[in-house]
Design goal:
about 350 residues; globular; paralog of FGE (formylglycine-generating enzyme); two-stranded antiparallel sheet; alpha+beta
Length: about 350
């Protein structure tokens, strides 16, 4: 009986009071029951906060990426591509221009006859001049050079042979010729001599090769003798000159007046290559002619006055850099007879009327 009445009154009155008045006094009375209620009530308003943050971050990052990417890519790619495409068409025009320039030079024709090659066997060259003699310091010290076998032309290159190289387009014209086709070519630079030898598949000899071929198997000081005969003039007068040099018929100043070799300037190749009745201008044992006279000869070496002091390989091959002058060897129709060890030099772009060459292999 009493239970039903009391429970209805209490449950009806507290509900309106908690809703209409948020005062602090009613809180202590219902502290235990409302604890779960505020948790449920506060969470719904807090939830919108995360909803507002994502929209702010997303739009900010999204516009930046698309703005940078399109700006860089289209600007760089079109700028590099057009120049490459435009420069390529120019390449095909170069080969047609270069090819015709190198095509004309021709090899020696079948009718061309290069000079006979002589074999110089393996052996020892006594290079230079004796240290106690009064000769040029650039020929000293005298020293032995062991050498392998090689080939060298028996005679000097002739006017006719060089002219064939000019006709083939491989050599530039020489200066004034002295005498006819079978005479040695002169007035050629070192470059012209080098071009001719390469045209026939050969090369200029180095200093040691030239000197060994000239001195012969016994390393003589002259091609016809180890020492000039005590009566050189008498022998030359009665037995004929052993070489072409500047004698009585020479148009240049000379000191031997009573010998005439029969030629005012150059002589035909091989004119002094006899060995009987006595040896003339031909090396003993190797039979290479005109090394001591007729014309001086270019060799491959750059000139260095201290080459022999430096020893191998400079003494044989010369310096490996441009010294301004190339070596040439041998006396000529314009000089007196000179020792085979004598060294001369001249800039490679200059020529002389008594300077020619021969090739080696």
């Amino acid at each position: 009986m009493p239970t039903t009445r009391v429970e209805i009154v209490v449950a009806t009155n507290p509900l309106p009071t908690a809703t209409n008045a948020p005062s602090v006094t009613s809180a202590p009375l219902i502290t235990p029951p409302p604890t779960p209620a505020p948790v449920v009530t506060v969470e719904p308003p807090t939830a919108p906060a995360p909803t507002q943050v994502p929209p702010t971050a997303v739009p900010t990052a999204a516009p930046v990426a698309p703005t940078l990417m399109p700006t860089l890519t289209p600007t760089l790619v079109p700028t590099d591509v057009p120049p490459t495409a435009l420069s390529q068409p120019a390449e095909p025009t170069l080969p047609p221009t270069a090819l015709p320039t190198q095509a004309p030079p021709a090899a020696p024709p079948p009718s061309f006859a290069p000079t006979e090659l002589m074999t110089i066997p393996e052996g020892t060259l006594r290079m230079g001049s004796p240290n106690n003699d009064d000769f040029s310091p650039n020929e000293k010290p005298q020293h032995d050079v062991g050498m392998g076998a090689y080939l060298i032309e028996k005679f000097e290159v002739t006017n006719a042979q060089y002219d064939a190289c000019v006709a083939a387009g491989r050599c530039s014209p020489a200066g004034q010729h002295l005498n006819g086709d079978n005479f040695p070519v002169v007035n050629v630079t070192w470059y012209q001599a080098d071009a001719y030898c390469k045209w026939i598949g050969r090369r200029l000899p180095n200093e040691a090769e030239w000197e060994r071929a000239a001195k012969g198997m016994d390393n003589w000081n002259y091609s016809w003798s180890n020492q000039p005969a005590p009566h050189f003039e008498w022998q030359a007068q009665y037995n004929g000159s052993p070489l072409s040099f500047c004698e009585a018929s020479c148009p240049l100043p000379h000191f031997i007046q009573d010998v005439n070799d029969g030629f005012a300037t150059t002589a035909p190749i091989g004119a002094f290559s006899q060995t009987e009745p006595r040896r003339r201008d031909i090396s003993k044992g190797f039979e290479v002619a005109d090394m001591n006279g007729n014309v001086s000869e270019w060799v491959s070496n750059w000139f260095d006055p201290t080459a022999y002091q430096q020893g191998y390989p400079v003494d044989v091959f010369g310096p490996d850099f441009d010294t301004g002058s190339k070596v040439y060897r041998g006396s000529s129709w314009a000089t007196e007879p000179m020792r085979l060890a004598t060294r001369f030099s001249l800039p490679p772009d200059q020529a002389r009327h008594d300077l020619g060459f021969r090739c080696a292999q």
